[in-house]
Amino acid sequence: MKPAADLWESLDKLDIAISFLKSVGSDPDSSLSDFITNTLKIDNPFSSPKAQQSSRCKHTMSLWMTLALERAKEIAKNNRKAFEGISENFKKNLTEEQRKVIFEFINSLPIEQIDTLVEVIFECIVFKVDVPQDDEEEELFSKVSFHDTLIGYMDTCPYEEDKQLDETLKEVIDLIPSDDQFGVVTCQSVEFWHLVQKINLDKQKRKH
After folding, report:
1. If 200 and its partner were Cys, which of 1, 101, 114, 137 is the partner (CB 3.0–4.6 Å)?
2. InterPro entries, alphabetically (predicted)?
C-alpha cells in the first residue's frame, strides 16, 4: 500500500489532470504521466513506476477511483470516517439489528467477494449517491433501498463501459437486506460501506 502522503499527493495531481482533460481533451491512448508532466508541468505524477509507465489518459478515472478507494480504506482503518464531503442525509446510522444481519451475511462470504463489494459500494456512493440534487429529490432518493441503488449503478457505470454485473456479484448484492425491517436504505450507504470494510479488514487479519 502507498504511504498516506503519496496517496493524497497522487490524488491531488489526478484531480488537476481530470479538470484539464475535461476542458482541453487529449488522445485517450496517450500517456497520462506525459500529459501531467509535459502539459501541466507537474513533476513526478505518481510514486508507482508501474502507474507512470502504463497509465493512459483513458485510464484517468479508473486510476483515480483505485487511489480514492485506497485512501478511504486508510482513513477507515484509523477509525475515522471516509466520505467527508458527502451530504449528512446519506450518513444515517444502521440499527443494531441491521448490523447483526449484515455481519452474518458479509462474514460468510469469501474475502475476494467482500473486497469486490467494498469497491462497488464505494464507487456507487461516489458516482451515484454523492450527486448534487435539490432537497426534495435528495430526500426521496435517500429512502430508496440501497440494494436498488447499487443495481442501478452497476447497470450504468459511468467510467467503465465494459463493466459487467456478473451473476456472482449480483447474487452477493441480492443478499443485501432490502424489503423487511432490516432493509438497508440509501441514507445509510456510508455507514454500510464502513461496516462492510471493517468486516473485510477483520477477516483479512484473521486469515494472516
Report:
1. 114
2. RNF213
**Predicted TM-score (pTM) above 0.85:** no
Which grid coordinates belong to 100? 447483526
pLDDT per position as a tens digit, 102-117 = 999 999 999 999 999 9
The percent of residues above 70 in pLDDT, for the chain, comes to 88
Q: Taking phi first (over 0 means left), then psi (-120 to 50 degrees means alpha), and beta for anything else, what does residue 164 get?
A: beta
The C-alpha angle with vertex 145 and arms to 141 and 147, in degrees rounded to 5, equals: 120
Phi-psi map region of 177: left, alpha, beta (phi>0 left; psi -120 to 50 alpha): beta
Amino acid at 74: E
Cell matching residue 32:
497520462
Burial of 11 (0-12, 13-18, 19+ CB in 10 A): middle
Length of the chain measured in residues: 208
CB 153 within 8 A of CB 162: no
pLDDT in tens, 136-173: 999 999 999 999 999 999 887 665 554 556 788 889 99
Residues forming beta bridges with residue 31, ordered by sequence position: 56
Helices 60-77 + 189-207 axis angle, to 10: 80
SS3 82: coil
Cα(167)–Cα(98) distance, rounded to whole angstroms? 25
What are residue 130's phi and psi, to 5 degrees? -85, 60
Q: How many helices (H) and strands (E) does the chain have?
A: 10, 0
